[in-house]
Design goal:
about 0% strand; flat; about 140 residues; 5 helices
Length: about 140
Amino acid sequence: MPLFDKLATILGSNLGDTVAKVVGVFKLSPEQAAEHAAELAKIQADLTAKTVDAATAEMNASAEVIKAEAQSQSWLPRNVRPLLLLLWGLAITLNSIVPIFVRVWMPEFQVVALDPWVYKLTAIGFTGYVTARTWEKVTNSDQ
């Protein structure tokens, strides 16, 4: 007995009728759908507002962490971001320049292939850092 026939026997009727009955249970009449549309719109608006509030709170918390690092008395928290960006940029630069010179002595030397996300992340980091420093200088908040 094929699987479809077994399934039809288990369900006791035509499979198409059974599926239509199950789907019909979840289908709303136009009046009920209109009644729930207003509730759904309110829920969607509340969800959007909560999402915006959460994003704002996260950005404010991040800003406070960066401010605390910048105002720290220790040199390490104040300089860790610029140092990491410097090391990251240096690694990318050396990965591009060193193989040119090394191939003079070792022609079989292979360049380490970096994923595109490495370059994108570096560009985002440098752009953010330069923008933040420029804003501090324009507003004289770095003194």
